[in-house]
Amino acid sequence: MVHKTIASGLYIVCDSEFMGTECGSVFLYRLSDNEYALIGCGIETSIDIILRNILELGVSLKDIRYVVVPYPLHYVVRGCNSLLSISPRILSVAHRNYARYLRQGIDPYTNKSYTPFRISIEVQNKVFNGIEFLFYENTYVGVLLQRLGILIASFHVLSLERIGLDNIFKTRSINRVCIVESSLCYRVSY
Questions:
Q1: How confident is residue 1, by pLDDT bands cut at 50, 70 and 90?
Q2: Residue 58 and residue 48: Cα distance in Å, rounded?
């Protein structure tokens, strides 16, 4: 078994720590019976691993309707571009806060450039198909899978200012946090 079940309908299909190989973090999320979304894309050299793990779960590439690009980092976007070149029918989803960077092909954190990314759906508000984009003071925090109450977030952001994030946790029904730099998900207690 080369994937990890987090909750019913949520799987890690690529994670550097869990897999033992550099691949980034990619979550497969079931939206409905035969419709899935990938959250993250991994790095471009990990596409074969991701596809193999998805197939092992019994999910076909044609069942993946969306890929959610949670942030415009150069290595994540390169992975997404590789995935979309294999399956151009998958719709890419990004929040408007990052649309400009993605379309221009600029990593706002490192100023590294990449091939401009095509965005199929630019999320204007904060929620798309039960996936909520969370921000704190104009900084990326993560995406909340509302049905499961699971927040997928970066450890670096969560550890920066826990006091300011308490409001996000208390005003949402979050029961677990999955850290993108780790294959671990933690229960939240108040």
A1: very low
A2: 16
Residues 6+ apart with CB under 8 A from 94: 68, 69, 72, 102, 117, 119, 121, 122, 123
**pLDDT at res. 189:** 58
> Stretch 145-174: mean pLDDT, rounded?
63
Please report the pLDDT score of residue 38 as a whole number: 92
Q: Give this prediction's pTM.
A: 0.83
Block residue for tokens 């550890």: 159
To the question of domain 4-187 being in CATH 3.40.30.10, the answer is no
Residue at token pair 């990326």: 140
The DSSP code sequence of the chain is: --SEEEETTEEEEE-HHHHSS----EEEEEEETTEEEEE----GGGHHHHHHHHHHTT--GGGEEEEE--S--HHHHHHHHHHHHH-TTSEEEEEHHHHHHHHHTB-TTT--B-PPPP-SEEESSSEETTEEEEEETTEEEEEEETTTTEEEE-HHHHHH-HHHHHHHHHHTT--EEEETTSS-EEE---
Cα distance between residue 10 and residue 27, in whole Å: 7
